[in-house]
Amino acid sequence: MHCAHFAAKRCLSCHWLDKPYTVQLNEKQQQLASLLAPFNPEPLLEPVASAEQGFRYKAKMVALGTVDEPVLGIINNQAEVVDLSDCPLYPPAFAAAFTLCKAFIRRATLTPYDIAARRGELKFILLSQSRHSGRFMLRFVLRSKNCLASIEKHLPWLLAQWPELEVCSVNLQPKAAALLEGEEEIILTEQTLLAEQLNQVPLYLTPQSFFQTQPVMAAALYQTAADWAVQLQQQQGDFSRIWDLFCGVGGFGLHLTKPAQQLTGIEIAPAAIASAQRSAAELGLSKVQFQTLDSAAFAAASAQAPDLLVVNPPRRGLGKPLCQDIVRLAPRWLLYSSCNAQTLAQDLAALTDYKLLKVQLFDMFAHSNHYEVLTLLQRRV
């Protein structure tokens, strides 16, 4: 992938872009093999490669410049303002979307926030697109409600110019700290959810729900987990009870579960649970229960284990207390999806009663040293 910003050293966010993509993928595979070597895994499966550009369907842009000449991008290490509206990581439709966002900033007089002076209102533009429908979700992160009335007044113009805009909201982040978003979300459109579909499984994204930045790779990840579960059933016999901890909008659990199986999904975000419940209903899954709870607290309070436990924790990993509860509960099978191989290795060391059977790397974040890993573990008898 060629990027003019990287070539000019204006933006080095894709810090591996100077390496050929095959070299990037090989280095990630080698790093993963080294981290997991103490656990004597079977040979690692071949990594799942990414497209080299146009793969990110979620953008997080700092609002910079002025009302008359807004910039969407970053401030780099040289304190330069860099407009990334033409970043090749995004699909082609994003460039036109960013142009409309800039026009709206001017029209609604949304003053970009100045960190040093602590003046201005607009902090970030957060933009997501459904690969399935092509529709968009746009979020304005503001310091206060001072510009809310202006956004509401001019929003009909933006919707008329941008028919693909499905959901628009304002997020309030009043703190001067470098936080991406705050707790309060004000949805301004009739539609409150952005519909996505991966492998014929409907998923619904709310403004604050977590979802992978790369839907193609997410689809491959979920489908692989489902395939491994089917193989387990064919080889080891049926299992009836599945837990999906840190379930988000239900991507893993809804892919894995058959109508006769019981699924319990646990996620701390209520909006994500509501989305997962809607998807389950559309799929006709009646033995499904999604609950708004802390995953670690749920496991700690549980006495009976599932047959298959699925976990997809944040970058910090499971942590020792949850690993200890997993060992205590002793589910026969564990599917662990990780976005941080370092914390994955720490958790595997704590899961003392489990043998690592399968490992596969999914290159969710091309041109960087980050990646996703799917593992399958079996409890030692």
UniProtKB/TrEMBL annotation:
Binding-site positions, S-adenosyl-L-methionine: 212, 246, 267, 312
Q: Which InterPro entries match?
A: 23SrRNA_MeTrfase_RlmC, MeTrfase_TrmA_AS, SAM-dependent_MTases_sf, U5_MeTrfase_fam
Mention one GO biological process in which this protein takes part, according to its record. rRNA base methylation
Similarity field: Belongs to the class I-like SAM-binding methyltransferase superfamily. RNA M5U methyltransferase family.
Entry GO MF terms? 4 iron, 4 sulfur cluster binding; metal ion binding; rRNA (uridine-C5-)-methyltransferase activity
Residues annotated as catalytic: 339
The Enzyme Commission number assigned here is 2.1.1.189
Q: Which organism is it from?
A: Rheinheimera lutimaris
Q: Recite the UniProt keywords alphabetically.
A: 4Fe-4S, Iron, Iron-sulfur, Metal-binding, Methyltransferase, rRNA processing, S-adenosyl-L-methionine, Transferase
Protein name in UniProt: 23S rRNA (uracil(747)-C(5))-methyltransferase RlmC
Could you say which enzyme class this protein belongs to?
Answer: transferase
* Gene3D superfamilies the record matches: 2.40.50.1070, Vaccinia Virus protein VP39 (3.40.50.150)
